[in-house]
Structure formats: C-alpha cells, structure tokens
UniProtKB/TrEMBL annotation:
Residues 2-228 form the ABC transporter domain. The gene is ftsE. Transmembrane segments: none annotated. One of its GO terms (biological process) is cell division. GO terms for cellular component: plasma membrane. Homodimer. Forms a membrane-associated complex with FtsX. It comes from the Bacteria. It is a peripheral membrane protein. Keywords: ATP-binding, Cell cycle, Cell division, Cell membrane, Hydrolase, Membrane, Nucleotide-binding. Belongs to the ABC transporter superfamily. The keyword Lyase does not apply. This is Cell division ATP-binding protein FtsE. It is found in: Cell membrane.
Length: 228
C-alpha cells in the first residue's frame, strides 16, 4: 500500500536531510507506528505520503502510484485515498460537527443523498451521533479529535495518516482515540501513526518503525516504544 524506495528529503536551505535513504514497505491493512525523537523525520515521512512534500530522490508509492510524479491536478485524487489527522485537530471553527464531516464529501462532489447517509453513519462510528449540531469549540479535545477522525474516514480512504493524534489529549482520552483508530483499522484501513506516546505503543503491540536523524534505525513487526 505504501512503499518508500531509497527516499531522501532535504528542506530548502537545509544542509542535513530530514529523511535519508529511507526504505519502508507497508502492506494493505497494516497498522504501523512511526516513533523517534522530535526532529527525527516522522512528520516529513507522513507529508511525503500525502504529497504535501516531494522527495528529492527515491520514490514514494501509494496504492501503486508514484506520488512524486503526480501532476498537480492529480493530487486531489491521491488525497481521497489518504485521510489525515493531526495533533491540533484542524476543524473548521465556524461549522458544526455535522458540517465539518459533510464538507469533506461536498468538496469532492459527492451527491447529497450519499452525504445524508454517510455523515450520520460516520458520526455514529466515532460515537458522536448526538453532537452533530455542536460547534467544535463546544466540544472537549477528545471529541474534537473524533470529529477530525470522522472527517478523515467518511470517504472510506485506503490509508489513514495520524501525526501525534493524542499529543493534546490526556491519557484516558487517548485510550479512547486509540480504540477508535483500532476499530477503523479493523474495517480494513491501513493506519500509519507518528507518536511520542510510549504507553500507547507499548499497549498496542503493533509494527514499530523508528526514525533517528532521518534514517530508519528499527522496524519490528510487533514492537515496543523503546528497545530497553
Ligand atoms: P518529527 O516529525 O520527527 O519531529 P520532522 O519531520 O518534523 O520531524 O523534521 C525532520 C527534520 O526536518 C528536522 O530537523 C526539522 O527541523 C526539519 N524540518 C521540518 N520541517 C521543516 C521545514 N519546513 N523547513 C526546514 N526544515 C524542516
Ligand atoms: P444544504 O447544504 O443543502 O443546506 P446541509 O448540508 O446543511 O444541507 O444538510 C444536508 C442534510 O443533512 C439535510 O437533510 C439536513 O437536514 C441534514 N443535517 C444537517 N445537519 C444535521 C445534523 N446535525 N444531524 C443530522 N442531519 C443533519
């Protein structure tokens, strides 16, 4: 589903690469954690998958497509296959929960009959079926992240990338978010999550890919946060 083939990324005006010679393959239906200290390259890895960034050398394949070679007008089609969530939720503040989720379908031109069916079903999936009329600022952090997850998966993407999704949440709330991501994974979505949360990684016992200064230094099928 995702292949990094000798990928190097150097940001403009930087001398050291953010990623250097990275080779990773993630199969359809996997759940993988990306770990490593701040600045090790986790966000850069995720942003190459969504074509927010392009590699300087090597190839990034998503669902068999070399995303670095996609023309600008093909990027939206890639993004329909890849849902994204972030530490800071990134909801539209003036729109209700329902509208935030519906908007993801409206911008890709889905018919309103489908929107009326999918949005409530997805709010139900994330446990927010009674909160459709609320504004994001009326919700707790955990609820806001659930809205963001609903928005990311309402289109049934192949891949979900999550960049520190529990970074702003307390431990109990984080567990709820991980249960939800696990449920989404079990529905068939490939999930790739960058995190600093050792407790979560140690509890889930999934694949762990560790980056250090832009290189993969560990890749274990069922790993823990640290090696010690
Ligand atoms: P992580 O997500 O693990 O914290 P990042 O992928 O954000 O790591 O960063 C990897 C390296 O790239 C760091 O050295 C960081 O300072 C650098 N970097 C990240 N974004 C930019 C940018 N927009 N411009 C220049 N350097 C950047
Ligand atoms: P439009 O774009 O046509 O103004 P909306 O996107 O606001 O319509 O709503 C589309 C459909 O979803 C409508 O049938 C509306 O009644 C329904 N709807 C809107 N908000 C909610 C909600 N919070 N809960 C359930 N259904 C809603």
């Amino acid at each position: 589903m995702i292949t990094f083939d000798n990928v190097t990324k150097i940001y403009p005006n930087q001398t050291t690469p953010a990623l250097s010679g990275v080779d990773v393959h993630i199969d359809k239906g996997e759940f993988a954690f990306l770990v490593g200290v701040s600045g090790s390259g986790k966000s850069t890895f995720l942003r190459l998958i969504t074509r927010e960034l392009r590699a300087d050398s090597g190839r990034v394949l998503v669902d068999g497509q070399d995303v670095g070679r996609l023309g600008q007008f093909r990027v939206p089609r890639l993004r329909r296959k890849v849902g994204m969530i972030f530490q800071d939720f990134r909801l539209l503040p003036g729109k209700t929960v329902y509208e935030n989720v519906a908007f993801a379908l409206q911008v890709i031109g889905r018919p309103s009959a489908e929107i009326r069916e999918r949005v409530p079903a997805t709010l139900d999936l994330v446990g927010l079926s009674t909160k459709g009329d609320r504004l994001p600022e009326e919700l707790s952090g955990g609820e806001q992240q659930r809205v963001a997850i609903a928005r990311a998966v309402v289109n049934d993407p192949l891949v979900l990338t999550a960049d520190e999704p529990t970074g702003n949440l307390d431990p109990a709330t984080s567990v709820g978010i991980m249960k939800l991501l696990d449920r989404i994974h079990r529905r068939g979505t490939t999930v790739l999550m960058a995190t600093h949360d050792a407790t979560i990684v140690d509890q889930m016992r999934r694949r762990v890919i560790e980056l250090d200064a832009g290189s993969v230094v560990r890749d274990q099928a069922t790993g823990a946060y640290g090696t010690a």
